[in-house]
Amino acid sequence: MEERRSGSARSVRVSSRAVPDWVGLASPEVEAGRNRATETIAPQVTTENDMAEEFSPAAKVYPTESLGKYSILDMLRYFEEHGAMRVSDLHIKVNAPPAYRIDGNLVKLKGPNVTPELAKQLIFPLLRQHNVAKLQTQHSVDCSYRLGSLQFRINVFRENDGIAAAIRALSLDVPPVEEIGFPNDVWHDIIGLKQGLVLLTGITGAGKSTTIASLIGRISEKNAYRIFSVEDPIEYVFQQKYSIVSQREVGRDVRSFQDGLKEMMREDPDIIFVGEMRDAETIAMTLMAAETGHLVFSTLHTRDVTGSVTRILDYFPEGRQSEVRNQLSLGLAYILCQKLIPRKNGQGRVVAMEILNNNYACANLIRTGKIEQLYSQLQTKTRDRPDEKMITLEKHLSMLVKDETIDLLEAQKWANDMKAFVDCMQRG
Fold first, then answer.
1. Which of 123, 139, 181, 204 could tie 351 with a disulfide, CB 3.0–4.6 Å?
2. Residues 312, 388: one domain?
3. What's this model's pTM, rounded to 2 decimal places?
């Protein structure tokens, strides 16, 4: 079957093994019928709190074209059947059919547009009462839901047509670190660290949480450490192995990232995982924890190493940036920026990474504010000092092209610096 991207003339063919027979775009006549049906819905008087109590996740409420009605549980089970590495997300929105993201492509279900009533029937059973109350007052909520072998990270939000949800699937089984796709054996160095900040960056859906979970999982297997996390929401659930692990969820176990970090510092941590550095106070406390003898993992939504450092500094006023640069130069251990690239054979995606080892030269550039020179340092170390475990994204992409894991055109689309990528391809 084919999936047409909105606003684009080209079609994307998705493997039939990954798509159920009730997924796909309907004919223009059916699409027009969907729109007419949505426009004629009578307003509902049931309150949102009533809806949360009334509907069960097993209630079959969404009419597919050929297989009868499906519940939200039926939709979530599809992730289990085909694997969260290939089928990553489910999107539910009023005035559109539910849609899966399969190998990076958005593919609609065969069925009618979701109505405001259907949206509540599909989304609210996944929420607890306090999350419904938060949605009413703050207009968005993050939470998690567990089904079988998967944990689902859910963001519910209000938009122009009503409520909508983005549901991300995560396996409860943390993949071995050897299967992540590191371009070198830098992970050996990372799991051996005693202190410092290891920052995972990338766009949404780039696999940051999976990489961190695999690293922490391996550390937990080999060392007797006290590990704490504060997440919003909890994604991977860590097993109690040789280490002792406590995971706390914002809104359920702790009021905020800042409160969680303050409390952790009194709880004898060896390793701290901060789900996301999303404000200046959280960043400052994370850097302080890394400076004071703890190994800290965290994430940022940035596309490359240089942008990650710049983003951290941009959270602070100009008068504080010198102080933060100094903290970052002392506390930073590694930045790993990653992207998920479609495989050439169409069977899922593979990680491409850019890795910065904060050695003396890089720390000096950060401390003196010469952030724009970090990429040149990366290029030099990639070419001349492979023992320092640094690599540019362009170099890793060229490696993946040469071993025929990804297509050349796909690599060009994802490269941050096309000239650097061409140079890597020519150098061999």
1. 181
2. yes
3. 0.79
Domain termination site, one of 171, 206, 241? 171
Residue 271 CB partners (closer than 8 Å, separation 6+): 216, 219, 225, 226, 227, 228, 243, 294, 295, 296, 297
Strands (E), 94-209: 99-102, 105-108, 140-147, 150-159, 162-171, 196-201
* Residue 198: per-residue pLDDT: 98
Element (H or E) spanning 88, and its range? strand 87-93
- Widest Cα–Cα separation across the chain: 68
Total domain count, the chain: 2
Domain closes at, from 142, 171, 200: 171
The structure tokens listed for 173 are 């089984």
Contacts of 133 (CB under 8 A, 6+ apart): 49
Tell me what pLDDT residue 172 has. 81
The 10s digit of each residue's pLDDT in 32-52 is: 454 444 443 333 333 344 445
Q: What is the CATH number of the domain that holds 150?
A: 3.30.450.90
> Are 118 and 248 in the same domain?
no
Instruction: Tell me how far apart the alpha carbons of residues 165 and 159 are, in angstroms, rounded to a whole number.
Output: 10
